[in-house]
DNA sequence: AGCACA
């Protein structure tokens, strides 16, 4: 075979092509100038400017081969050379048959977004914070995070391109709301393009990747034993490995926090299997067990630092427990196993009460049964404004729609609650326990 | 003046 490809390409024996290769162009030649040059000979359907080491080459692609031939033929016999800005340009058939535009993927709308987190502390942004941010626009199927030369990046998968587009339009160029991050970390700006991916492959739930459509996906070993990689917390400290069991300590407990109150608060994020309360360091702590890590992660994100009651009372501090399955010996006012049939329980309506009620959040077009209780139903309200929504806006749903919104003071009151208040000698203002409302101090 | 690097 004659090896045409091994020959120098600047013989004038290029086979015809719809694509012409132009050289000796002036610096920064524009697409418009190329179209002007080719227009007399046919329809220019594509161009590529600023090619080559000196950016002085370009391609133009005609709709039809004959148009390209016409242009080459014309200038082959013309006394006037082809010119751009008075500079002679040289034409020949390209050795390719079409222009491939490499700026496609980032411009074609898809259901997966490529998110670059910019900022000094970008790496400290947890996948859970990203999940919260993007869940405001619809159900987030999957998230993966990774390091590239571009920095800390994430792929965020939505159901469809429309949802992804609404998130992209609202978030691109914006900062992650301050109230989602601890105070001492630098602002993080989101840069968002479309990804060419349509379905991410997530093998494990881990600190780097999540599949929110599959709660039974195994948790990565590295996320369980914590021996290999800790994820960095928002404050830059090491995080304990995620767990399905949360350890909650209650600060400034002016009002009694009973087992039932805890069960209500934590049930907003999923089924609470077991709770155990105990005294430690002069305060009250509780272990709350969920069926899966994912639910616990969401609950922790949502509740950490928030107060059960208005006024900074009963502030929750939540960490992951090393337990995975609590051993509840007896059901009483300090410990309870909600997974076993409980005809003998004193207050035996809790879980069933919460189930349906917990799903009454309006605007919940997210997948049923998944844990989005705290996503703003009207994301545009929070994101369209230049100023990030105030802290209260994120959990505001819990204020408005949380099942524990008593029409009358102190509903679901338990004997234990009464007693503890009596013992403590602290009377709530006006004798009323404020409604449960997570709020930051 | 001589073929694109996503």
Automatic annotation (TrEMBL):
Positions with biased composition (Pro residues): 431-441
GO biological process: mRNA processing; regulation of alternative mRNA splicing, via spliceosome; regulation of translation; RNA splicing; seed germination
GO CC terms: nucleus; P-body
Limits of the RRM domain: 18-96
Domain of life: Eukaryota
Main location: nucleus
InterPro entries, A to Z: Nucleotide-bd_a/b_plait_sf, PTBP1-like_RRM2, PTBPH1/PTBPH2_RRM1, PTBPH1/PTBPH2_RRM2, PTBPH1/PTBPH2_RRM3, RBD_domain_sf, RRM_dom
Segments for region (Disordered): 420-441
One GO molecular-function entry: mRNA binding
Key words of the record: Acetylation, mRNA processing, mRNA splicing, Nucleus, Repeat, RNA-binding
Protein name: Polypyrimidine tract-binding protein homolog 2-like isoform X1
Species whose genome carries this gene: Durio zibethinus
The gene coding this protein: LOC111280663
């Amino acid at each position: 075979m004659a090896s045409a490809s091994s020959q120098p390409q600047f013989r004038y024996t290029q086979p015809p092509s719809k694509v012409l290769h132009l050289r000796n162009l002036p610096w920064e030649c524009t697409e418009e100038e190329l179209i002007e040059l080719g227009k007399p000979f046919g329809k220019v359907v594509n161009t590529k400017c600023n090619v080559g080491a000196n950016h002085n080459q370009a391609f133009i692609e005609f709709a039809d081969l004959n148009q390209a031939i016409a242009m080459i033929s014309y200038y082959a016999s013309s006394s006037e050379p082809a010119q751009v800005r008075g500079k002679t340009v040289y034409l020949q058939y390209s050795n390719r048959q079409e222009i491939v535009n490499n700026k496609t993927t980032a411009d074609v709308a898809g259901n997966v977004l490529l998110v670059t987190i910019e900022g000094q502390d970008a790496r400290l942004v947890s996948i859970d914070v990203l999940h919260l941010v993007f869940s405001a626009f619809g159900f987030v199927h999957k998230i993966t995070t990774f390091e590239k030369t571009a920095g800390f990046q994430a792929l965020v998968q939505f159901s469809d391109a429309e949802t992804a587009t609404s998130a992209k339009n609202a978030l691109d160029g914006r900062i992650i709301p301050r109230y989602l991050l601890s105070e001492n970390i630098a602002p993080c700006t989101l840069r968002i393009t479309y990804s060419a991916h349509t379905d991410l492959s997530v093998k494990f739930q881990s600190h780097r990747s999540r599949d929110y459509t599959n709660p039974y996906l195994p948790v990565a070993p590295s996320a369980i034993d914590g021996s290999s990689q800790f994820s960095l917390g928002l404050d830059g400290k090491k995080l304990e490995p995620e767990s399905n069991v949360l350890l909650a300590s209650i600060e400034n407990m002016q009002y009694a926090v009973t087992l039932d109150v805890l069960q209500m608060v934590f049930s907003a994020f999923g089924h609470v299997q077991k709770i155990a309360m105990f005294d430690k360091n002069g305060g009250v702590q509780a272990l709350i067990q969920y069926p899966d890590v994912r639910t616990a992660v969401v609950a922790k994100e949502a509740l950490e630092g928030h107060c059960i009651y208005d006024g900074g009372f009963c502030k929750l501090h939540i960490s992951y427990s090393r337990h995975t399955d609590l051993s509840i010996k007896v059901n009483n006012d300090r410990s309870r196993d909600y997974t076993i049939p409980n005809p003998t329980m004193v207050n035996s309506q809790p879980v069933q009460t919460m189930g349906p009620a917990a799903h009454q959040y309006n605007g919940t077009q997210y997948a049923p049964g998944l844990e989005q209780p705290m996503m703003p139903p009207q994301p545009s309200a929070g994101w369209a404004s230049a100023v990030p929504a105030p802290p209260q806006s994120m959990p505001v749903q819990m204020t408005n729609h949380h099942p524990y919104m008593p029409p009358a003071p102190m509903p679901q009151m338990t004997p234990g609650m009464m007693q503890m208040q009596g013992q403590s000698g602290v009377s709530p203002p006006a004798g009323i326990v404020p409604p449960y409302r997570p709020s930051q101090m």
